[in-house]
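Kindly review this record before class:
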Amino acid sequence: METRRRKITPFDKSALGEPLALALHAISAPRRYIRPWYLAYLLLGMVTSGLLPVLLPLAVEARAHSLAAVAYVMGTYNFGLLTSPLWGLLAERSKTYRKLFLGSFLLTAAGTLGMLLMNGLPSWLSAAFTLGAGSGGAATLATLFVVDFAPRTEWEPRIGWLQTFNAAGQVAGLMLAAAFTGGNFAPALWVCITLLLLAMALGGIGLPGSPAAAASAAEHPHPHLNVRALAIFPKLILPSGIDLHVYHLNLRGLRRLPQTLGTPFGRFLLSWFVFAFAVAAFFSYFPLMLSRGYAIPAHTSAMIYALTAAVGIGLYILASQLTARFGPGHVYRAGLVLRIVGFGLLLAPLLLPTHARSPLGMAGFALIVVAWPLLSVSGTDLAASLTPFSEGAAVGLLNAALALATALGIVVSGPLVARWGYQTIPATAIAGLAVSLWLGMDPRTRSRGIPETNRPGGPPAVAPPVRRQDGGASGLRLTGG
């Protein structure tokens, strides 16, 4: 085979260990990496990460008059998201990518319609699971249209833009949700259904290749993805679905979990699980909690969320720079401390007599949301740095822990909030975050992190190939959170 020498472009260098260069290259060449069907993913973010997180808790509480019912519905939605690996498995075996992608939007719309028309907790749970499964499927197929159809050299910028479209949709959806918090939620849910059907129509425009092309691509082993590069692109800020649309752990990769016991990576994974479990309840109750506990109307909390989420989009590159300069461990712990302070501001007015409930509530809420870019970037970096096996399997375990902890945390919080009120949310969050911070202080991990070859001033590092358990390259498969 003839080997040709060619000049390395900034984009090529980024694939070798310069995440910031990759981000700048992707931003400077949008026409090369953006496709019309990305708009469908933006609309999905508007609905499932913008409108519904605000509207569903309000609608369920208004109809069921039960705080526990809110937790059960939101938790069931998150359990629906956990079907993402099954969508990826079905798509790659049946080669019906297009049908599954468009059908997932229809399934999400059907779940939303069920929440609108059906009554009673059992019916709502069924609809919520359908909604979560459909949105997880759409996200799964979206990323598969990149890794199974696009050239390897274009994976990171394409997926980066895909994440950014979804995050921008979340901001737009939160701003739109502010207009539908007056008490009549039926029109808002019909808007959600309309947006999902529009996404289904747009999702068919410009989809890549054919099943035959995907089958051909699957025959050739892929090198692993640059997980640190992808970490600096904006992602969803809600726990519901965080990272599920980015990384998917092959189910066989769960066999690697016992290998983490007694390792710095295992301790960090536990810290990550506890952190996600501790804060899960807040993101399910925040419209109700801020309205009734801090006199912050739901439309105001939605706008605060939208504005802080928009600011957060710009913090991903800053978080990457901080991680490179100070190490991912320090940035991760700083993110946890920031959230502890945020929940502390929320807890103080509930325990002490004060007339500053609204300002403290707004400030605490903003800090909790803004901390996510720090945690997302540093957490991804720590997973890739501390892993005793492939980076792909490590990041997959990280996201599996996040998704499972979120779903469990929401469900467990229901009886607690129903029994003792909203003050249990910041109190348990602070306790859980403190435990997570202690677990993240493992002295064995302090000197770990970005290898010297990846630090500023060092030569670009070429990451070693990651071997799959089946003998091929890369344990990392992108699918749909």
